[in-house]
Amino acid sequence: MTLQPRPLRCTIKQAEGLSQCRVDTKPSHNMGEEDFTRENGERKGNFSMQRVLVVDKNKNPLMPCHPVRARALLKQGKAAVLRQQPFTIILLEREGGETQATQVKIDPGSKTTGIAIVADFKRGLRCIWISEITHRGHRVRDNLLKRRQVRRARRQRKTRHRQPRFTNRRRRKGWLPPSLQSRIANILTWVKRLRRFVPVTQLAMELTRFDTHKMQNPEISGTQYQQGTLQGYEVREYLLEKWGRHCAYCGITGVPLEVEHIIPQGRGGSHRVSNLTIACTDCNRKKGNRTAAEFGYPDIHAQAQKPLKDAAAINATRWALYEQLKATGLPLETGTGARTKYNRIRQGYLKTHWLDAVCVGDSGEQVFVSETMHPLLITATGRQSRQMCRVDRYGFPRTSAKQQRMVNGFQTGDIVKAVVSQGKKMGTYIGRVAVRASGSFNINPANETVQGIRYAYCQPQHRSDGYAYHV
Ligand SMILES: [Zn+2]
Q1: pLDDT in tens, 334-364
Q2: 20 to 30 A from 384, CA-CA: which of 40, 107, 280, 414?
Q3: Residue where a domain stops, chosen among 295, 311, 327
Q4: Which of 60, 92, 83 is closest to 196 using CA atoms?
């Protein structure tokens, strides 16, 4: 992605009063030779893409290097390609080397997570590697739903005589839905992977949407914050914490407490946290269809407008991620979403997941990002299916039992290069392969599927690792 020149962006920013700046973008696949080379044949200055990850001959991480240097090293035979994605080279003679402080910064999102590596050079902080991971949470959910339906149908068909068993399930403490767990696992996988190829000294993540102290400030408190994060029993927990675990009206403790609407629903009261309180069953019934003020407690309403003053509003997934990142043993910096936005707008960066990651926390205040950087796009694909065979929409088997995973040394998800030398499909294809037991594979180069490529034409480039990549 190309951004507009900095002076122009600043002008736009000023005209629009420091809001989101309008930036002309040019997709990376649209870049031509004129973007890299001057008319007289020289390379254009200020061109810097993602750095290439480097390890020494013992596979210990070194500082990532500029692609130009990597190309030279490869040409001289001093280095070899260790891995295609993320592109990593191994120095064949070198052992050890000087490294600088390097931080992996994460902006966790529900669909997409931004990851950036920021190095602390003499001239200041500089972003050297970026990526965006697209999660597969909705696919996990869909798969589980499908499994449940198939099982239910099967139970219905085959074991209808059996008594239902329903009290034999237990969830461990800290359980999260599998769709959310998969997001956390994706991020942890990538932190672990990057630590193998980059000398990471610190981690940073965005932990909270907002600082609860600032919720008092009318500018950032509001429906979108309170409705977005606090749902279901989270709301209940939040209210119990906020009202001190006793009835807001009579102050009784040790009895079952109910969530209560200050302005009743029937009279237009909303489900917003600022309209909710905690009451015992008796008070709730006595209050009936009256507002808190009519019930004789005008101060309750005023108190409800003020949100809780602690970290109770942290999103469960982010909190779980925080715990797991802390378990890596690296120092972990946390930041709020409000701080990220502040840093991003002040530096005139676009709203993207990877730029948000760069701007996370106090350390994101001043980070240099080259204007020609574009992220490695990573999509979580999963590895295999545990389903024994495909079923139709009534739950009956549609296909035969699944075949072996490896076919002629390849498995679905490998990135291969196929050079077809004869026949109708002559040409070179690089892409993700889908194996077929017949040995005649499908290859997916960008946005198209080429069917029926014999395995003998394929050469592995990158073995399946549960992710798909686009540069
Ligand atoms: Zn009460």
Answers
A1: 987 777 877 888 888 988 999 999 999 889 9
A2: 107
A3: 311
A4: 60
